[in-house]
Amino acid sequence: MTDLEGELRSAxxxxxxxxDPDLRAPYETDWTRRFTGTxxxxxxxxxxxxxxxVVRACAAAGAAIVVQGGNTGLVGAGVxxxxxxxxxxxxxxxxxxxxxxxxxVTVGAGVTLEKLQTHARAAGLDFGVDLAARSSxxxxxxxxxxxxxxxxxxxxxxxxxxxxxxxxxxDGTVLTRLGGLAKDNTGYDLNQLVAGSEGTLAxxxxxxxxxxxxxxxxxxxxxxxxxxxxxxxLLTAARVQLATLxxxxxxxxxxxxLVRAYGRLPAPFGEPAGAYVVLECAAGTDPTDDILTMLSTxxxxxxxxxxxxxxxxxxxWSYREAHTEAISAAGVPTKLDVCVPLGELTxxxxxxxxxxxxxxxxxxxxxxxxxxxxxxxxxxxxxxDDSDNRAEDVTDAVLRLVAxxxxxxxxxxxVGRAKSPWxxxxxxxxxxxxxxxxxxxxxxxxxxxxxxxxxx
Length: 456
Ligand code: MLT
Ligand code: ZN
Description:
This is Oxidoreductase. Belongs to the FAD-binding oxidoreductase/transferase type 4 family. This protein is α+β, with helices and mostly antiparallel strands. The chain is built from 16 helices and 17 strands. Helix 14 runs antiparallel to helix 15. Zinc ion (ZN) binds next to strand 16.
């Protein structure tokens, strides 16, 4: 036992310092199985004070830290590169009573999205961000990556939900700003700086989150369209005509085939289509008639099926939400999460197959995502790991294509380790230099998530 492990045991209790390889293993590989590394040990603090003690012990020993929430990240930011102390925040799972007057709630970083949703709904409110990994994804990780999901159209990304944060800096200093004031112009917004910083500036331990009205009536339409251009025509009509629109998602026939085989789902329509769009409306009263009226007047609609009962909503959403699991069951994907202006979306989708085929002829690309934001999840399967056919080549080719279409290399998953070498495609040298100066000021020894976000 080294001094550091002893210090960590005093900080969190011996049962929560995992050194045995079998106990560490579930923390050391990411959800996609693409990123894996050996941690020096896994530490599981249960309070902010314990996080401070862990960080101070690591800082004194010069030991690097990698921070992990629900381990649902997709860019390798929450698993070790090799030799770091892995700090799991799963035990910071406390929820305070909902403040219904402010429509806010304070929760621990380790609270899952599902637990937060259940808690908010029991108080007659809801949380504005939702995503398929809700049962495992945690508030801390979602803030660190500025997660998006399926309701960004209505409520914005995770940053927009943050009314306050408590976070621990690399030297153990605790920044606490959990008051949740609606207006507060007293200088730099440190909470918003920490949100989206991927654990490189501070460890989020608690969050004060905004809540939104709980809308009891939902209607979902799964719509068959000819392709991306028609999907955008449908989106335009939906945005103009449906004040209650809460989600607009897209997927393509290759994804539908995979999802159907994985979930043993029936074909949603008699005839195949070029693309499929999921539209959801949420309101105080049943929005089905509004959706039906819009669909009946939109020329882009080839076919559509609409549901508003619980089972029907789940059934239609499953065609979209099962994509991630179905893809993962088919192999270890190279996941690229990109965003382009809507005017560039059709060209990007059209140019993608040839771009990938040039560097990985045997690869297949499964594309799906958040239509409203122009945010596509490009999942490349069988990109291969031999020298002629490498995942890095695919990443390079696709991210350059995205940049040429004025897009970003990360829309909502973050940069992590997966995309840090390509950061300069989305950020100017001046921006990267400013980010490095901020990092150096808050974490001068580079102990928090080294190698994540900023290229070495
Ligand atoms: C999604 O929108 O389903 C998530 O971002 C997960 C993924 O891209 O696989
Ligand atoms: Zn997504």
